[in-house]
Amino acid sequence: ELKVEQNPLFLSMQEGKNYTIYCNYSTTSDRLYWYRQDPGKSLESLFVLLSNGAVKQEGRLMASLDTKARLSTLHITAAVHDLSATYFCAVDSIGNRDDKIIFGKGTRLHILP
Amino acid sequence: GAGVSQSPRYKVAKRGQDVALRCDPISGHVSLFWYQQALGQGPEFLTYFQNEAQLDKSGLPSDRFFAERPEGSVSTLKIQRTQQEDSAVYLCASTQVGGRRTDTQYFGPGTRLTVL
Asked: What is the pLDDT of residue A41?
């Protein structure tokens, strides 16, 4: 059964600091998604990572994928308050027993001014 | 419209009532997904349509849950005899092409269901 684990689940950080959110998954997959969700809102797609070594950047966010380690990271550079949200990773398990997209529990990020 | 829309946005039901949740995907999108998101959790897959065909309903938690997409566009998720554990946000997403292996799922705003 595919499991997706994110850590930390909660993160409070100061503006201007750097930090990394980790997403580990338990079985083979070659497609990983990062989403952002603001309170009371729906999910907004941030990145889709399609292959080992993939790196994508948008503004202060950078995502990478290591399929051999079954690990993706979302790195935040010089955080600003507007980045406060919950961030989810999701893994495509097609071909595995579960045959669906599995989400992590999310990382609730709070950036202090 | 430009995005995925869902209605109602909020629904309060008494335990035992039936509810119907509607999803209007982006026009022309082939695939449609339903997810259930409990408070403080990530979305959990419920079911998946490609056009009007329901290709996967393995995530539906019980036979009280039923989904349809009769004309391959609008979809309805129906929950019969609602229970308190059904309280959650129900999210709908659509993708342009068929199959799950797509680049981006576009999510609707969700329907927050509260069962009293």
From this structure: 87
